[in-house]
Specification:
heterodimer, A: about 280 residues, mainly alpha, MetI-like fold, B: about 250 residues, alpha/beta, Rossmann fold, 11 helices, 10 strands, about 25% strand
Chain lengths: ~280, ~250
């Protein structure tokens, strides 16, 4: 019996299944991008990026304070999470067999699994309440807690790939352990670590929930980390849920800026991985 | 002056439950090449690693006995100082991939934060690379990364890097096992030249190599020092039957 036509048909069927699955995945992504770009592109211009939000009904208005605020929050989050995260990743790699390392690994995993809103509440209880007010600092801490696991894992995964012989080469020259780590091991993994950091930033840049109780939002420009600040996700959240159509337009524009920022970071991270 | 630079006294090493080195005592002569050979797993790599305390990187290693460099027990010295006096070249070439050839040679200084003037650096790089027989091949590419070098050149770069620290003893752990015959011959010639300036202890499981380059040979078997003497004697009239059998390639 000739079963070849049947097999060819099965093969074709499978190919169609794969192609449709891919399409089904791509369609929402493309639609989302199309929606945001088509709605946001009209709003975006230099003025939009450099001026403060205006009250509803007043023409124009921008998101400069949200951009600066997001930058401030990410800066604080990075300044806190990168040193700790890289150190922890280094520890996990160097002492990977120890019980403490397994415990730390579990903690990092759990931290990664905590919903962002819960992290927001915790930052509220630990930072906002004792300090007596919303602040960029507390928002940065909330975002740092979200970034930390990504930095730790990226560091550990990267350093695992660095040949042991490099460490031996350095120690064999009489270089102290800490200098070997700082000057040889970490630089050798710099690309991978940076990739992890970029992906971490891309992730927290869009976080809204933890900022609701911490950075809170602010209609004015500030770079004071003890004051509440605006951020891109917060301005999108606040303006998109407002009843005013000009504010909703601003929210579309802010969404586009945020998407471009996040996609740009992801692309940058991808090119770094390839190197 | 004492002709022995390094003396090992009743050295015992175990990793976990395995006894790797059993009660080895031996002394190494100044500015000579000593080959340590033996079948795989006989403890020769562990023995040389103990000499510059690199064994401390392996967890669960227990060492008893002593190793004295100029009569000073290295286990009572700072391991960092020990490694500056006793340099090491590993099985596989391991130049620092992010550094240029120039920086690789003076890596020991750069990484230790030892300041050198521009001319000190230049002299050190040239003399170390010349000693390692690499200067003529790389003098026009000093500021390029070492990745384009062949395996043998990389290994000579590693030798230059170790020599730049001006060690008194150079440990070579099967320095040619990852190299092709031509590079191997090159490194063997180099070893014969280097003993003018530095004491060399090399591990090899290449019997021919031991006979070609060394002045003294030690034969290790199952963690024990079976026989140790001048290469000439060991290769012509060995005292121990096991040495003879190993040299006639009956095992190993």
């Amino acid at each position: 019996m000739n079963r070849v036509p049947f097999r060819l048909a099965k093969d074709l069927g499978f190919r169609i299944y794969l192609a449709t699955s891919t399409l089904i995945l791509l369609i929402p992504l493309i639609l989302i991008l199309y929606y945001i770009v088509s709605n946001g592109i009209n709003v975006i211009n230099l003025d939009f990026l450099t001026s403060l939000p205006k009250p509803p009904g007043v023409l124009g208005g921008g998101i400069s304070n949200a951009i600066v605020g997001s930058g401030l929050l990410i800066g604080i989050a990075g300044a806190l999470s990168i040193p700790f995260g890289v150190a922890l990743g280094l520890f996990l790699n160097e002492f990977s067999e120890t019980r403490l390392a397994s415990a730390v690994r579990i903690c990092v995993e759990i931290l990664q699994g905590i919903p962002s809103i819960v992290i927001g509440i915790i930052a509220y209880l630990w930072i906002v309440v004792p300090l007596g007010g919303f602040s960029a600092f507390s928002g940065g801490i909330a975002l740092a807690m979200m970034m930390l696991p990504m930095v730790v894992r990226a560091t550990e995964e990267t350093l695992k790939l660095i040949p042991h012989s490099l460490k031996e080469a350095s120690l064999g020259l009489g270089v102290p352990y800490y200098r070997t780590m700082i000057k040889i091991i970490v630089p050798a993994g710099a690309n991978g670590i940076l990739t992890g950091v970029l992906l971490g930033v891309a992730r927290v840049a869009g976080e809204t929930a933890p900022l609701l109780f911490t950075a809170f939002g602010n209609p004015f420009m500030t770079v004071n980390i003890t004051q509440p600040v605006n951020s891109l996700p917060l301005i999108i959240y606040n303006f998109a849920t407002s009843p005013y159509s000009d504010w909703q337009q601003v929210a579309w524009g802010a969404s586009l800026v945020l998407i471009i920022f996040v996609l740009g970071l992801s692309l940058l991270a991808r090119t770094l991985i390839k190197q | 002056m004492n002709k022995h630079i390094l003396e090992i006294d009743r050295l015992n090493v175990s990793i976990g439950d395995d006894k790797i080195i059993r009660d080895i005592s031996m002394a190494f002569s100044r500015k000579k090449v000593t080959a340590i050979m033996g079948p795989s797993g006989c403890g020769k790599t562990t023995l040389v690693r103990c000499i510059n305390r690199m064994h401390e990187l392996i967890p669960n290693t227990v060492v008893t006995g002593s190793i004295a460099l100029y009569r000073k027990n290295i286990y009572e010295m700072n391991p960092i100082m020990v490694r500056r006096e006793i340099g090491m070249v590993f099985q596989r070439p391991n130049p620092f991939p992010t550094m240029s050839i120039y920086d690789n040679v003076i890596a020991g200084y750069l990484l230790n934060g030892i300041k050198l003037t521009r001319s000190e650096k230049d002299t050190l790089v040239e003399s170390s690379l010349s000693k390692a027989g690499l200067w003529n091949e790389v003098k026009d590419a000093l500021h390029r990364r070492g990745a384009f070098l062949s395996g043998g050149q990389q290994q000579r770069l590693c030798i230059a890097r170790a020599l730049a620290m001006k060690p008194r003893v150079l440990l070579l752990d099967e320095p040619t096992s990852a190299l092709d015959p031509k590079s191997t011959a090159h490194i063997e010639d180099l070893i014969s030249e280097l003993k003018e300036t530095v004491t060399i202890i090399m591990v090899t499981h290449n019997i021919g190599q031991a006979s070609r380059v060394s002045d003294f040979t030690a034969f290790l078997y199952m963690g024990e020092l079976v026989e140790y003497g001048t290469t000439e004697k060991l290769f012509t009239v060995p005292d121990d039957k096991r040495t003879e059998e190993y040299l006639s390639r009956k095992f190993g």
